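Ticket #4471: structure output looks truncated?

Reporter: J.K.
Steps to reproduce: submitted the chain below (487 residues) through the standard prediction queue, then opened the result file.
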Amino acid sequence: MPFVRRYLPLFTVAFAIACFYLYGLNRVGVLGPDEPRYAAIGRAMAHTGDFITPKLWGAAWFEKPPLLYWLTAAGAWAGLSPEGAGRLPVALLSLLFLIAAFELLRREFGFEAAAITVTLLATSAGWITYSSLCLTDLPLAVSFSLAVLIALPLVQERCCAGAHENIRLLAIGVCIGLAMLAKGLVPVVLAAPLIWFLRGLWRKWWLAIAACLVVAAPWYVAVYVANGYPFIQEFFLKHHFERLYSAALQHVQPWYYYVPILLAGLFPWTPLLGLFGLRDQRWDERRRFLAAVFVFGFVFFSFSLNKLPGYLLPLLPSVFALIGACFETKSLAELSRLWLLPCALLIGAIPLLAQILPQALAAGRLSSVAIRGISATELFYVVLPVAAVLVARRSWIGWLLALCVVAGGIYLKTVAYPLLDRQVSARGLWREIRTPDAAICDNWISRDWAYGLAFYRGAPYPACNSGHYPFELRSAAHGPPVLQAHH
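Returned output as attached by the reporter:
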């Protein structure tokens, strides 16, 4: 019975989270400019059998390394839908990481700290979002964060010497190698805190370096042999170094950009950052290491001229691990309800997000115009988490709030995804216009729509100045492009 009382709530929440992650992956078409391109490259790899040179609609494309493309190709081979081929492998990778992270953290900080960390991470807005999209951010975050968690015993200098220490260093190298296959040199830079905190083991660094090279080097060598200097120029010089200082990549943001992005990524658990200010908070070497991983990465990304929200994703597991570590020696039931009440209020706001999300993504900004009256169903989702905090037993509150996030998230997908499919994704527009496909040209539509339509069409629409076409697609304010007669 003690085993059941301890593990049954975790298994229940874990099952609910898994169902949530896998629900609705095909209910909305590809989104934004990146997802259709990454999914198209992976699909092309599956069709051509060329797993060395990424190709976007027939042309070599060196912006990102191949790990995500390989996952997407596997999904295409499995006969998944165009959207599911790229999204399902990412969702499964996220779920597998959460299981591994729980076990690694349980050995370090105990059952309750590990359960809290993984549950908060799995139900945070940032992790949920990137676990359901065909983007490179989640594979990078998974690989790099595994390296960080595997390093924790070595940092504390209490790991068994000899073979066990060597195995951990080899595993760290493998994870960094996979991260390099996910996003190039980014994990090498983010690994600077690992190098510092493991400096006492510098004589054995060669194990991690060798493992990293065995995993990552074959593709880098093969793609260079196949393509030569254009790969170096595009992949390293442009998409690594120019990203730090050049405005040409069109992602320029102010230095404080990641402050609100972090707060939003931790939603609805953002108020728990206040736990770091508690007087009884311990700061041993493991916690300082996790804090250093986050701070270094946050500062590095903030100094880069080009910024995107997903860049912070590899730092979220360290933040939540620090939050969870607060409960290494005490139970969540000992925490005052006042700490969880703000989280409950944020969870209750999820139905409102379901109303405004499609219009916000279509317009590129938040707007209160889309908010209408709250229905009885939405009122239920608003009240439920607050009631859980005020009424439920303290030992149940955390689990109930996690289930409220899952329930609210499923509601959001059910309500918002059909609207996103019509207003933001190119899939709905493609279904309307594909009949006269050969007679349509592109009259400067935005790249979000251009890449999305090209994904479903199999190739971009030709520019209108390249020939004579009876119809044209033209951008119309913040909504979908308009099909009209070409003059």
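Triage note (M.O.): checked the attachment and the full token line is present. The chain is about 65% helix and 5% strand.
Status: closed, working as intended.
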